């Protein structure tokens, strides 16, 4: 649905003020879920993106893995992730109810496994780290991992089971959020925002790719990796968010017996890999991590490495049909954590920089954005993730 917009006297300026309270830049899962929540809270919302839902949200694997993706030095992000993971079952239920669409939220658990002694040293260190943080994870012997997941390669030596980690089909999630937004009368504008125009420290309009200007007095910047590169963004966001490329493969296994019953992650002779099974028999193999600007090509080397490492853990992946190789950009930040809050430009709010955790942090981010626009402040777990944390004192 294109926004119901009114032309003013200036032919290039469009006033959405009669139809829109909030403009959201970026229709990934963060922008879409915020739009849905804001709309349900009584705001009239327009969301602007040239390719609705087709950025990182579309390429993601859909893991909701606070425990398996807990990293050293990121304990405050872990707390945030655990809160968001806890809110996922209700969020999924509510979205499914609102749209009558399944998003395949499954608490399938993650098996993190190792192939050789060096790989097992990494796995054991990770288990110790998880246990030192009081996280729920269980070490499994070689016999136990094979019992839990018979499709693992016979020489897998052992692993960790984290039952609380889950997944959602990210593409179904995107489709359901678009549907929920449509049902909640969110307007979609299929354009790229070139510039946020402010006067005396207050946002006034958005300049779109085709030269049109939209009047806007409340803007949520949720443009993922592009959030620092739109002209006129608040100065504290300049150079803060960078694209971290990730390539994934999508395969389809031939029969239901070849479907893994857990997400399998692992270290295979030093290579870090994940294999995410869907009930639809699709599997997502990922992911590379490197920085090369906004280059969307998929390297042959990456396809080779992903398949090689996945096959070392789950040999049957090579009997699957090859459906797609794709690249996306994780919005990286200096501390790998999201940026959600108000900015130095009055009327501009930000919800971006979710790096590896966009899907995981969707429910909590949407809630925080709604709280921010409704009450002017964020309480709770997300309150420590404002852009002000990067201010140099
Ligand atoms: N969270 C998975 C990834 O970033 O590849």
Counting structural domains, the number is 2
For the secondary structure, the number of strands is: 21
Average of per-residue pLDDT values: 94
Assigned CATH class of the largest domain: Alpha Beta
Radius of gyration: 21 Å
Give the termini separation. Answer: 46 Å
CATH architecture of the largest domain: 3-Layer(bba) Sandwich
Q: What are the low-pLDDT stretches, counting only 5+ consecutive residues below 50? A: 1-11
The CATH topology of the largest domain turns out to be FAD/NAD(P)-binding domain
Share in β-strands: 25-35%
Label the structural class: alpha/beta
Which distinct ligands sit in these coordinates? glycine
Instruction: Based on Cα principal axes, name the global outline.
Output: globular
Q: Percent of residues in helical segments? A: 25-40%
Q: What would you give as the CATH superfamily of the largest domain?
A: FAD/NAD(P)-binding domain
Major β-sheet strand ordering: 7-8-6-16-17-18-15-19
Q: Give the helices and strands as they follow along the chain.
A: EEEHEHEHEHEHEEHEEEEEEEEEHEEEH
Q: What is the overall number of helices?
A: 8
The largest β sheet comes out as: 8 strands, mixed
């Amino acid at each position: 649905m294109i926004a119901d917009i009114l032309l003013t006297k200036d032919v290039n300026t469009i006033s959405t003020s009669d139809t829109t309270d909030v403009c959201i830049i970026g229709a990934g899962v963060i922008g879409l879920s915020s739009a849905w929540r804001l709309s349900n809270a009584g705001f009239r919302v327009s969301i602007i993106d040239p390719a609705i839902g087709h950025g990182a949200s579309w390429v993601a694997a859909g893991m909701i893995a606070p425990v398996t993706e807990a990293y050293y030095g990121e304990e405050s992000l872990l707390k945030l992730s655990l809160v968001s993971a806890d809110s996922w079952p209700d969020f999924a239920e509510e979205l499914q109810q609102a749209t009558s669409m399944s998003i395949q939220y499954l608490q399938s658990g993650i098996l993190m496994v190792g192939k050789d002694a060096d790989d097992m040293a990494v796995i054991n260190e990770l288990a110790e780290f998880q246990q030192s943080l009081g996280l729920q994870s269980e070490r499994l012997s070689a016999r136990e991992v094979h019992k839990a997941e018979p499709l693992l390669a016979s020489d897998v030596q052992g692993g960790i089971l984290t039952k609380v980690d889950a997944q959602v089909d990210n593409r179904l999630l995107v489709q359901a959020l678009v549907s929920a937004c449509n049902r909640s009368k969110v307007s979609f504008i299929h354009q790229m925002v070139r510039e946020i125009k402010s006067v005396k420290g207050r946002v006034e309009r958005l300049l779109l790719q085709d030269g049109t200007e939209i009047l806007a007095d409340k803007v949520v910047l949720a443009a993922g990796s592009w959030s620092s590169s739109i002209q006129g963004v608040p100065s504290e966001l300049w150079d803060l968010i960078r694209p971290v490329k990730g390539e994934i493969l999508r395969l389809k296994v031939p029969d239901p017996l070849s479907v893994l019953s857990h997400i399998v992650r692992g270290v295979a002779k030093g290579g870090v890999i994940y294999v995410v099974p869907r009930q639809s028999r699709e599997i997502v193999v990922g992911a590379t991590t490197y920085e090369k600007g906004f280059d969307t090509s998929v390297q042959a080397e990456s396809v080779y490495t992903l398949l090689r490492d996945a096959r070392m853990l789950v040999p049957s992946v090579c009997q699957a049909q090859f459906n797609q190789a794709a690249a996306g950009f994780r919005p990286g930040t200096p501390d790998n954590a999201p940026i959600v809050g108000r900015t130095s430009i009055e009327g501009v709010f930000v919800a971006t920089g979710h790096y590896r955790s966009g899907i995981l942090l969707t429910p909590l981010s949407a809630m925080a954005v709604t709280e921010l626009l409704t009450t002017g402040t964020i309480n709770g777990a997300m309150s420590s993730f404002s852009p002000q944390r990067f201010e140099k004192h």
